[in-house]
């Protein structure tokens, strides 16, 4: 977008119209002692200098390394059609439409998005997206609390992304609630401890499948136990895994949450991404965010509207379901294009490719002397390796060989000094995986 | 006992120690087509004027304030699927029933004539 500055004449014209002498008069209402003395800003730059500056910054990015990093954000193939279509000027805005119904094209895209998310997760209702996976989980927890009315406890499984757990705790910190996080005992859920805790004081239990260590488990039995005491089951998952793994519907979960980066969005420095939040239809009035619906206009033409808005702040004020009144429109649009391009069968293939590549990597790494696999459960496209050297040492040495080798888990868990989370998506070729394994052999 | 009305347009009828609470025809007319009623939880305790239920229409969303305090003993579950019953017969469709904690609170409410005068001032 071009930068269009105001000329001195423009400014003078505006000042004349509103009847003040100079710009500083706009701030007369702010007492002198409360005004900033300086903003410590550099002198302005010319357009050319700005380009130069940012080019120099961009050149510091290392884009040459082959990534085996996972843990929430993954290096997936992004079809070029996504960039081409999502940057069309009719679509290209990061913002949710404000005169919503005037933007029928955007609303239709979001309606398609919602339909696809419902199909992917098996849930009946969803919104037009949330900020990211962590905040979607926090909103899911708040939904469970609202639905549970007097129930004040949320249990979070040990396998949930530890960053998401922090976000949930932050969101819920000033509510009169108890958030119980189960201790990590192994790569899987501690179902015995959990089943002992489930009673009618629990509003909801949050689990992640595959979990943060990459492990897959069947949670149907837990969900059943939760439903017996009318507590809700909140499932978090990685969208790509849903091509072959149980959906939220398959395990009878009540709310689904997740991060949408893997659906056609770039890694960046951890974003921008978007969050997915979906639920059974009976909970739709407790679902926060914007929901696009379909209706007929006065002339009987199909049209799209924002619906069930009584949930939202501008109508329900302090009793709104959430303070979210936006969505990650552009990222959700990219996901919609991604899913349309991949298609239903393609999604299953993509999911299988992830599973196959990482299974091959897992097999090959388990044959390396000194390396073992931490996971007891089956895994999808990532898993934890245990090394005879420190994870920091390992990551650094692999970086010298041009690999982002994985995620160090000691930064997130106690007693995980030698453990690294490794992922292989559909994007990793056999040659890259073989090279990776050969380098690991050399290092350990 | 005769029907009593609050400033917030709820009506209450006391039968023994249980009061039935509903919305006035005037309130429902102002709201337009009712699309959803969120009922209180049975067993919930409320003071007079607490917001314990919620109503949505095509035009607005608003709280339902209980005109008298007490414990919720019954809710009109029919409204979950048929909120339009309120449009059809607001003055005879109760929303919830309370076991009243202090019957003297009825004395602070208006009778039908008083309420009629009140809405004429709005």
**Mean pLDDT over all positions of chain B:** 93
Number of helices of chain A: 12
Largest interface, and how many residues on either side? A-B, 7 and 8 residues
Largest sheet of chain B: 6 strands, antiparallel
The strands making up the biggest β-sheet of chain A line up spatially as: 2-8-7-6-5-3-4
Query: Oligomer, anyone?
Result: heterodimer
Describe the protein.
- The complex is a heterodimer of chains A (444) and B (122).
- In chain A, helix 3 runs antiparallel to helix 10 (329-366), helix 4 (104-121) packs parallel to helix 10 and helix 5 packs across helix 6.
- Chain A has helices at 8-18, 47-59, 80-86, 104-121, 133-148, 162-172, 191-197, 220-228, 313-316, 329-366, 391-400, 430-443; strands at residues 66-67, 125-126, 153-156, 178-181, 202-208, 232-237, 255-259, 275-279, 292-296, 302-306, 372-373, 382-386, 403-404, 407-408, 419-423.
- Chain A is globular.
- Chain A has twelve helices and 15 strands.
- Chain A is an alpha/beta fold.
- Helix content of chain A is 36%, strand content 14%.
- In chain A, the strands form four sheets. Chain A has a seven-stranded mixed beta sheet, sandwiched between helices. A four-stranded antiparallel beta sheet of chain A has the order 11-12-15-14, covered by helices on one side. Chain A has a two-stranded parallel ribbon with strand order 1-13.
- Chain B is of the alpha+beta class.
- Chain B is 20% helix and 38% strand.
- Chain B has four helices and nine strands; from the N terminus they run E-E-E-H-E-E-E-E-E-H-H-E-H.
- Chain B has helices spanning 25-31, 78-81, 85-88, 112-120, and strands at residues 4-5, 10-15, 18-23, 34-38, 45-46, 51-57, 61-65, 70-75, 94-100.
- In chain B, the strands form two sheets. In chain B, strands 1-2-3-9-8-5 form a six-stranded antiparallel beta sheet. Chain B has a three-stranded antiparallel beta sheet with strand order 4-6-7.
- The longest helix of chain B is centred in the last third of the chain and has 9 residues, at 112-120.
- The model of chain B has no long low-confidence stretch (mean pLDDT 93).
- The A-B interface holds A 149-150, 285, 310, 315-316, 319 and B 36, 38, 41, 54, 56, 60-61, 63.
């Amino acid at each position: 977008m071009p930068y269009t500055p105001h000329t001195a004449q423009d400014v003078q014209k505006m000042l004349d119209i509103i009847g003040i002498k100079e710009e500083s008069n706009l701030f007369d209402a702010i007492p002198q002692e409360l005004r900033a003395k300086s903003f410590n800003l550099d002198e302005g730059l010319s357009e050319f200098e700005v380009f130069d500056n940012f080019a120099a910054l961009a050149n510091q990015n290392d884009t040459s390394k082959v990534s085996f990093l996972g843990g929430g954000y993954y290096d997936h193939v992004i079809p070029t059609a996504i960039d081409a279509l999502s940057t069309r000027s009719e679509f290209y805005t990061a913002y949710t439409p404000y005169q919503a119904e005037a933007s029928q094209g955007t609303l239709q895209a979001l309606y398609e998005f919602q339909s696809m998310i419902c199909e992917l997760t098996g849930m009946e209702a969803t919104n037009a997206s949330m900020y990211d996976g962590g905040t979607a989980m926090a909103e899911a927890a708040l939904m469970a609390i609202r639905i549970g009315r007097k129930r004040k406890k949320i249990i979070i499984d040990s396998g949930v992304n530890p960053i998401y757990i922090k976000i949930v705790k932050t969101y819920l910190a000033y509510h009169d609630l108890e958030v119980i996080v189960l201790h990590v005992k192994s790569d899987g859920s501690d179902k015995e401890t959990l089943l002992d805790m489930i009673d009618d004081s629990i509003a909801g239990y949050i689990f992640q499948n595959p979990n943060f260590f990459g492990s897959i488990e069947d949670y149907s039995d837990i969900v059943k136990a939760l439903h017996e005491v009318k507590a809700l089951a909140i499932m978090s998952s990685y969208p790509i895994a849903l091509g072959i793994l149980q959906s939220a519907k398959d395990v009878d979960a009540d709310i689904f949450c997740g991060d949408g980066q893997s659906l056609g969005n770039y890694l960046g420095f951890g974003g921008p991404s978007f969050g997915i939040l979906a639920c059974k239809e009976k909970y739709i009035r407790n679902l926060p965010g914007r929901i696009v619906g379909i209706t007929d206009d006065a002339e009987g033409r199909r049209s799209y509207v924002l619906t069930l808005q009584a949930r939202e702040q501008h109508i329900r004020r302090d009793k709104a379901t959430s303070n979210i009144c936006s969505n990650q429109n552009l990222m959700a649009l990219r996901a919609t294009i991604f899913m349309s391009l991949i298609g239903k069968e393609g999604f299953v293939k993509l999911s299988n490719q992830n599973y196959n590549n990482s299974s091959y990597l897992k097999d090959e790494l388990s044959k390396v002397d000194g390396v073992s696999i931490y996971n007891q459960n089956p895994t999808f496209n990532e898993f934890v390796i245990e090394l005879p050297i420190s994870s920091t040492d390992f990551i650094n040495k692999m970086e010298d060989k041009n690999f982002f080798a994985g995620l160090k888990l000691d930064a997130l868990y106690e007693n995980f000094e030698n453990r690294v989370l490794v992922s292989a998506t559909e994007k990793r070729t056999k040659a890259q995986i073989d090279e990776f394994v050969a380098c690991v052999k050399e290092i350990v | 006992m005769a029907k009593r009305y609050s400033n917030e347009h709820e009506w209450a009828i006391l039968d023994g120690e249980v009061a039935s609470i509903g919305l006035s025809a005037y309130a429902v007319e102002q709201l337009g087509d009712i699309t959803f009623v969120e009922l209180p939880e049975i067993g919930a305790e409320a003071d007079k004027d607490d917001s314990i239920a919620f109503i949505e229409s095509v035009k607005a969303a608003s709280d339902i304030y209980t005109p008298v305090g007490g414990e919720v003993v019954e809710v009109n579950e029919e409204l979950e699927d048929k909120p339009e019953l309120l449009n059809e017969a607001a003055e005879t469709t109760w929303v919830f029933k309370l076991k009243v904690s202090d019957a003297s609170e009825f004395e602070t409410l208006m009778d039908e004539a008083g309420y009629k005068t009140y809405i004429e001032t709005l």
